[in-house]
Amino acid sequence: MKVSYFQEQGLGVFLEKSEVQWWLDLFTDTERGRSVLDLAEFYANCVVTDGVVTSTVNDHDLRFDVKKLGELLGVSSEGSVVYV
């Protein structure tokens, strides 16, 4: 995620809220391992219904909401409804 892009778009409040909840570090940390192919498969199969995300990656069914995602990633989900 390029922070400068969000700043240029006038989304400073979004960045501030993300930083307070530790989400900003999560999305700007380029050292975290990730698979581009798995991420592409996740987005290709992704459906969001009533705040619940479902997808399939490598034949694994995924289902989570903001609270569960926060728990899995070890970050706060408090106040996320403000910008979701």
List keywords for this structure.
3 strands; 84 residues; three-stranded antiparallel beta sheet; 5 helices; alpha+beta; 17% strand
Determine the fraction of residues in helical runs and give it as a percent range. Answer: 40-55%
Share of β-strand residues: 15-25%
Kindly report the spatial arrangement of strands forming the biggest sheet.
1-2-3
Number of helices, where a helix is a run of at least 4 consecutive DSSP H or I residues = 5
Number of strands: 3
Number of domains: 1
Separation of the first and last Cα atoms: 17 Å
> Kindly state the mean pLDDT as a whole number?
78
Classify the secondary structure makeup into a structural class. alpha+beta
Which of globular, elongated, flat, extended, rod-shaped describes the shape?
globular
The low-pLDDT segments are none
Main pleated-sheet profile: 3 strands, antiparallel
Note down, in words, how this protein is organized.
The chain is 46% helix and 17% strand. With 84 residues, the protein is α+β, with helices and mostly antiparallel strands. The chain has one domain (3-82). It has a three-stranded antiparallel sheet. The mean pLDDT is 78.
